[in-house]
């Protein structure tokens, strides 16, 4: 029996990631041509943002990462794929995606994006979604938790996290890497369920009562919500509501999930990237910064694990540097001030 498209796509992405780690810099372009379209669109964290083409990906993202962390090693904690349906109206977009999250580990040997090197071992949270067409990657959305990396290097550019810093583990059941074909009915149900959660739950907030979203019906009382640097992890539903959700909705009460770049599910896992996936107005204090009244767009990635009818774990990325830049706050500039650096030319 021939592998289905999703299985072939997963194999391609996993081979692509392994090739990045195991190929000499001078041979990267040839190696990547096996897995990536030459005109791929890569979307990453601020201040890198968008890179167009495989050459730009190598020069603008991968080689600088390797220079700063020469012994870089990827740990993949979750890995799955599927056919996307990320539109609010529920129309099938039908694109095939593969996603993953985990940690890069390595020695912080040289400055990275102006973050001063510590010379110490660090772990960098990563989340990545790849769209495949004709068997090759042609679009990527990737976030690195740069605030968490700053914290590991000794720089704190935001007030202390309300949640717990440094917590971003694999699934507690160690079942997140889905290399084999999953039950089609469970995958279908997971996609249907996550759509209800996002578009019929999160988007129903009435701007006054958290209960209007019905989150208690979607999240386990002991849900593990692994948030980004600056926000931190919340290790039960009460912490999620009080430490993250209430401050977030006070600051951005009209926030609304938009059409997502992708929304996929396989087995009991589901995930979504959204560049401008949430739009909001900054009308309340957030992490010590008063309301600006400015409209903003939030870039993020989410991966959820479902057990039955409820979510038990949620891995969350928010591009905090991009978010605060829209509020008129340069977090990288603040870090430079702490380190005594001058702005890069």
Describe the structure.
The chain is α+β, with helices and mostly antiparallel strands and 345 residues long. 27% of the residues lie in helices and 30% in strands. The chain contains 8 helices and 12 strands. A 6-stranded mixed sheet has the order 2-1-6-5-4-3. Strands 7, 8, 9, 10, 11 and 12 form a 6-stranded mixed sheet that branches. β5 and β6 form a beta hairpin. The model has no long low-confidence stretch (mean pLDDT 94).
Number of helices: 8
- The succession of helices and strands, N to C, reads HHEEHEEEEHHEHEEEEEHH
> If you average the pLDDT, what whole number results?
94
Task: Give the structural class.
Answer: alpha+beta
Rg value: 19 Å
Helix content percent band: 25-40%
Strand order of the largest sheet: 2-1-6-5-4-3
Strand content: 25-35%
What is the number of strand segments? 12
Identify low-pLDDT runs. none
In whole angstroms, the N-to-C terminal distance is 56 Å
Describe the structure concisely for a colleague:
The chain is α+β, with helices and mostly antiparallel strands and 345 residues long.
What is the secondary structure topology, with strand pairs?
Blueprint: H1 5-22, H2 28-32, E1 36-43, E2 50-52, H3 54-68, E3 73-83, E4 96-107, E5 121-133, E6 136-144, H4 146-152, H5 184-199, E7 219-226, H6 237-251, E8 256-257, E9 264-266, E10 269-281, E11 295-307, E12 310-318, H7 320-326, H8 331-339
Parallel strand pairs: 1-6, 7-12
Antiparallel strand pairs: 1-2, 3-4, 4-5, 5-6, 8-10, 9-10, 10-11, 11-12
